[in-house]
Amino acid sequence: MNEPQIPVAPSGLVGSAMADDAVAAPRSLLGLWQIVFLVISAAAPLTGMLGAVPPAISLGNGAGIPGAFVIAGAVLLVFSVGFASMSRHIVRAGAFYAYITAGVGRPLGMAGALVALLSYTCIQIALYGLFGFFGTVVLGPLLHSAMPWYAYTFACIAVVQVTGLRGIDLNSRLLGVLMCLEMGILLVLSIAIVIHHGGPSGLTLAPFAPKQVFSGHMGIAVMFALASFIGFEATAIYGKECRDPKVTVPRATYVSVTLILVFFAFVTWAIVCAWGLKDVVDAATKQPGDFWFIQSTKYLGGAMTTTMSLLLLSSIFASLLSFHNTIVRYIHALSVEGILPAKLDRLHAKYGSPHRASYLQTLTVALPVGLYVLAGADPFNTVFSCTSALGTIGIVMLQAVTSFSVVAYFRATKKDTRVWHAFVAPILGGLGLLWIGFVLIGNLDALSGSDSPIVRAFPWIVLAVALFGIALGFVLKRTRPDVYARFGQ
């Protein structure tokens, strides 16, 4: 196999109140681990490891990449303190924008809602391009087929739509199975490396030493590492569909971030040990597509390497389904609040899923993918790499604003007076995310694989969408005060 490097970025009642309650009604049976499966699947561990690690090593801090994942995870754990505290007081499907609204007002909350929709949709479009690309690489030879990438992409869009309609409970069980498989094969490879005492340098903790972690361009490495975590924040989005959300959502948030952190740190440490401290940068630079597969063939054999390549497709599919669920719940929440047409808040009579919002979500990704196809865009270098970069900037900045909004909310309401939970942790998390966001903007060419003027305009696109949201908020305040009053509530 000879894939290029993958800079991964890194889920019938009518009426507002009735539809909102319906999402929390008899079908609200999600437990802790079901939510964890949903959000870790969005992070797509296998896709993140195979895609983000080689460029993070070659462009970032080399053998110190496990430490970069620890730093990124630590920033998100600190962010999670305020995020989880907020989830105990506000249970809304539109978590980010609901928290921003509660903390700093409806106009900024409206900006958060539009940026969230833009960012998650971009990431999903990017992943569809990635699925099509690897469909040709992995399935093409197995099926002896020369189908174009977009044939695999549109087939995947159809499957995600059908599966998404079946309801969140089925989705969580399916994603749980796929998540266990993709994490399982990486763990098997890592354990095999440990059993065989690693490569030229043996098993060493040097990748966690400050000398390695802070070498090279540590900021770029942390940027790629954080992009691999995107999706964990969806825990709060399922609040109305789980048992005891004020307890389950905070626990699911901490469990998800901790599991991803420990898993990524261990697996990247093992692969660095397999290549050796001196050779790992050269291997990641010259053989980014085969970086993991070479070691898999060495330690597990050809059959398991083929299995890993197939699980890469299931990993991308799992992430797509999880993001589909996330975006659908944003659309549903906005329709309940009167921002989007009221008809979108209807739930499926049999499955209890927001089926009209689901169809709209599928349409919003199918049309851009179709335009990419008509333009002859490359599924990897354009559809995936560039579009995911735009989405990643939006999500990181949204997380930072959410952190500061948590501080504002608790200072105004006094509902949580704990210094660490309501002030220090959110401030530190917000500053850490802002730093990573500026690193992202300063290294867009590395994240996207392109230095075109369009790519350089991505931060301005996010800012323009945010400003439009703020303006829309003030317009609604004057023209539709009833809708404005209901927004984010």
Number of strands: 0
Question: Whole-Å distance between the termini?
Answer: 51 Å
- Which value, in Å, is the CA radius of gyration? 21 Å
- CATH structural architecture: Up-down Bundle
Overall body shape = globular
CATH class, anyone? Mainly Alpha
Biggest sheet: strands, sense, closure? none
Strand content: under 5%
| Domain tally | 1
Computed structural class? mainly alpha
The averaged pLDDT comes out at: 86
Which topology does CATH recognise? Amino acid/polyamine transporter I
In CATH, what is the homologous superfamily? Amino acid/polyamine transporter I
Sequence stretches where pLDDT stays below 50 over 5 or more residues: 1-28
- H-E string: HHHHHHHHHHHHHHHHHHHHH
Relative helix content? over 70%
User: With helices defined by DSSP (H or I, 4 residues minimum), what is the helix count?
Assistant: 21
InterPro entries: AA-permease/SLC12A_dom, APC_superfamily
Keywords: Membrane, Transmembrane, Transmembrane helix
Main location: membrane
Protein name: Putrescine importer PuuP
Topology:
Elements lengths: L15 H8 L8 H12 L1 H17 L3 H23 L7 H10 L1 H38 L5 H17 L2 H28 L14 H4 L4 H10 L17 H31 L4 H7 L4 H10 L1 H35 L18 H20 L4 H35 L5 H24 L1 H5 L4 H4 L1 H22 L1 H6 L3
